[in-house]
Amino acid sequence: MRTQHFLTLLDFSPETLTALIERAIELKQLKLAGQLSTPLQGKVLGMIFEKASTRTRLSFEIGMVQLGGHAIFLSPQDTQIGRGEPIDDTARVLSRMVDAIMIRTFEHEKAEVLAEYSRVPVINGLTDLYHPCQLLADMQTYIEHRGSIVGKTVAWIGDGNNMCNSYINAAKQFDFNLNIACPEGYEPPERVMQTACSRVQIIRDPLTAAKNADLVVTDVWASMGKEREQQARLAAFKGYQINRNIMAAADPKALFMHCLPAHRGEEVSTEVIDGPQSVVWDEAENRLHAQKALLEFLLLSEETYH
Ligand code: CP
Ligand code: NVA
């Protein structure tokens, strides 16, 4: 049987994604009720981080502990990865010992090679191209606050980056409209746009994109690896800040999300991120519950999961 990986949201069917979100909501309630089950006893997740992380590392490590398993943090500085051992060799060795691998890296192709040579499931914990785990948490958060997202309108205002690309995948899998407002030259890559469904459109003007939106989302203007472009990006993204004017154009019940870390005063004003429409802390917490559902799904057999 082919090993199931989670490199993008398109790796799973819409039905599986919906089941994962339902399970994430359930796992959250069980945790709140003090009921932890430990089906992953003896299972180990290897976590390769080639970029910094707070939420992703915490949520995967804590998630494995709560499920009865264990997680190992692997950084390039302390492993042979940083000394040039090929990623396919790393995949072969690691996957003979651990039960699943999570990778956060630059080139998406590296995660794809890792998956190709791995005997165990590989999870994308963020690449330059996609951040699918964050979308599980975002979808869970929307559904918990507002119910089904089917047919709703999401406004992505900012960089056409890894988060935006995963929103493009999510629009297809979760069946919502996605208005993308980004400056010229900062659009999502063509290869991602080619996979977009008809519900996705690029609208330059942030106010137009936000009109009647049910969810307004942004992210940093300079992602990890783009720090040297910070000044040029500050100029290019002027006018793309999510502030009270943008939120006023959206539906009065609209939510605000940001995967974090955020730069207050740049991509979002302090009053919006710290205001009543912001659900960023629930969103961050839900990384834990959504990824526990993902780990269960990937590491337990079909019969045990359902
Ligand atoms: N949102 C997110 O992935 O955060 P970290 O970079 O802290 O993992
Ligand atoms: N787009 C951001 C997301 C961080 C979680 C980055 O890649 O740095």
Explained architecture:
With 306 residues, the chain is α/β, with parallel strands linked by helices. 42% of the residues lie in helices and 13% in strands. It is built from 13 helices and nine strands. It has helices at 14-32, 55-66, 87-94, 108-117, 132-146, 162-174, 190-193, 206-210, 230-236, 244-249, 270-273, 280-299, 302-305; strands at 44-49, 70-74, 100-104, 122-124, 153-157, 177-181, 200-202, 215-218, 255-258. The strands form two sheets. A five-stranded parallel beta sheet has the order 7-6-5-8-9. It has a four-stranded parallel beta sheet with strand order 2-1-3-4, sandwiched between helices. Helix 5 packs across helix 6 and helix 5 (132-146) crosses helix 12. 47% of the residues are buried. Residues 302-306 have low confidence and may be disordered. Residues 53-56, 126, 134, 259-260 line the site of phosphoric acid mono(formamide)ester.
Q: Count all strands and give the number.
A: 9
SSE order, as H and E? HEHEHEHEHEHEHEHEHHEHHH
Number of domains: 2
Structural class: alpha/beta
Q: Which distinct ligands sit in these coordinates?
A: phosphoric acid mono(formamide)ester, norvaline
What's a quick, concise take on this entry?
The protein folds into two domains: 9-131 and 285-299, Rossmann fold (3-Layer(aba) Sandwich); 134-283, Rossmann fold (3-Layer(aba) Sandwich). Helices cover 42% and strands 13% of the residues. It has 13 helices and nine strands.
